[in-house]
Every structure is written in C-alpha cells, then in structure tokens.
Structure prediction request, 332 residues.
Amino acid sequence: MYTVDIEALNQQIYLDSAFVEDLRQETGRVIVGQDTMVERLLLGLLTRGHVLLEGLPGLAKTLAIKTLAQAIHAQFSRIQFTPDLLPADIIGTMIYNPSKNEFTVRKGPVFANFILADEINRAPAKVQSALLEAMQERQVTIGNETFRLEEPFLVLATQNPIEQEGTYPLPEAQVDRFMLKVKIDYPTKEEEREIIRRNLQEETLGATVKPVVQPKDILRARESVRKVYMDEKIERYILDIVFATRNPAEFGLKALEPLIQYGGSPRASISLAIAGKAYAFLQRRGFVIPEDIRAICHDVLRHRIGLTYEAEAENITQEDIINRILNTVEVP
Prediction:
C-alpha cells in the first residue's frame, strides 16, 4: 500500500511555496485590492492553465498581468483584439527578404511568456482559434516551420460584459479551453481611495516592479504542485460536484434539470483537481481540503455550464446553480 508522509510533504511544500509571499508583496506595491484576480493568475501559472477575465474597463486587468510578468522577470505581450485583426497579426508571418531572395519568419506577439488578449470577443473566429491553438498545443506553425512556445506560457483573455454589439462570442468548445473564468468587480471605497492617492503621487506613477522570481522557479513550483496530496474522498467530492451538473436529479436536485442545458466536461474535473492542488500550494499547505475545492469551484465551472432558455427567463445564473450544488453535495 502506497502511503504518504503528510508531515514531511507539508514541510516541503511550505518551503517550496515561500516565493508566493514575495510575489504577493511585490504585486501589492502596484495593484490595490484585486487579490482574487492576482491569485487566479498565479493559479493559472502553476497549473499550465489559462484565464478568462470578465470585468468592466478600468479594473486593472492589464496592470495586473503586466506587474506579474515584471515580478517574474518574464516577457509580456499585449494584443488588442479588433474586428480587422488577422491570425498573422498574432502568430507571425513569412516576410520576403529581397537581398537574400528568400522568405524569413517574423514571429508575432504570441511569442512571450504572458499574453494579454484584450477584448478577445472583438476579433473574428479565425483569429480567436489561432490564439486558442497556441494555448492548447503550446506551439505555432508559420509556413513549414513549427515553433515551441517558451514556458511558462499564460494567456489572460479579457471580455467586456457590456457592449455585445459587433462582437464574436467565444464558442462553448473554445471557452472550455480556459481553465478559469474569473469575474472581477469594482474595488471597495477604501481601496479606491488608496488608488486615487497612489495615482496622485509622482513617485508611484513611475514605480518599477522588481523581479523577485525567475521563470525557472515557476517551472519548479509546478512540479511541487503535482506532489500536493489529494485524498480519495476529495476526488469523490470533485466527481460528485461535476456529475451533479450533468445529472442533478441523482443528487436530489431535480429542480435544476430544466435549467441546465449541459454540464461540466471531464476538463472540469481535471481543472478542479489540479486547481485545488495549486490553491492548497498557494495557502502553503501540502494537502487538499474541501474548502480549497469550494474556493475555486465557481471560477472552474461558471463557463462550463450551459443554461436553458428557461433559466435565462427566470434570471437564474451559473453562480446560482453552482451555489445550490455546493450546498447540496455532501462535503467529505
């Protein structure tokens, strides 16, 4: 029988995750509040996942990922998605060189560690799928050559929840490629006061973020995340939650049946498990507890549950359904 020394593992993870505090402190020098957003970006980094952010303009989405990239000493690229964008504008293209009488590859902005895909739903499907292929395969083909993308590689795509005219919403299969969908809200009054004060100080405006972590440290941390212990009871808990989105009646949630068009895919179960481990790692703990799963459940599942017209007519959201599932499924 394979046994795990939880005490030793806990101490090991506590040491391996020491850099998390440095990262939080350094990003906190620039970003006020938005702790959940920064934490979810770290979750994506530690699990090779990508993050879809939904929030109104001006909520520090660009600032957050740029600051994190600087703190990790990584390359950062921002792509503003517009209706006239072409796949070549993202992945790169072949350029003719008259002096050498040959075509050479010019790499696009996707060749970086951190990609901010701003307003991804503003660009046509062809452009979206070019980026999503890079996310999934971790490689890009230009002409006859295939190039591997450097790790760590994180895509943060943003969507504006208002102004849906003239946009190209991401199809369900493509949204499923994002490990987390995070909704961000306005800062509190105290946080906004601090934002005003910082922006009025000259020294803050030019504040530079010091690199406190190297990309190789993130790659090493990913290996540690995989070692975090997950008990069979937690595995069963994850499966119960995901299966409750598919067959709610089996879990005493018959009322949800007419509201759910489709439930979470196996990707949802995988994402809940690995994100649960990463969340435990961020708490500097060597084992997963049910609270870890509950903490990240909304972000993992909200874009993986399809609502029926009936649910939309009754103003029932994915959040409502996830809350009812979490309140009903037995916690180990």
Observations:
- The radius of gyration is 21 Å.
- The chain has two domains: 18-213, 228-328.
- The chain has a mean pLDDT of 84.
- The longest strand covers residues 92-97.
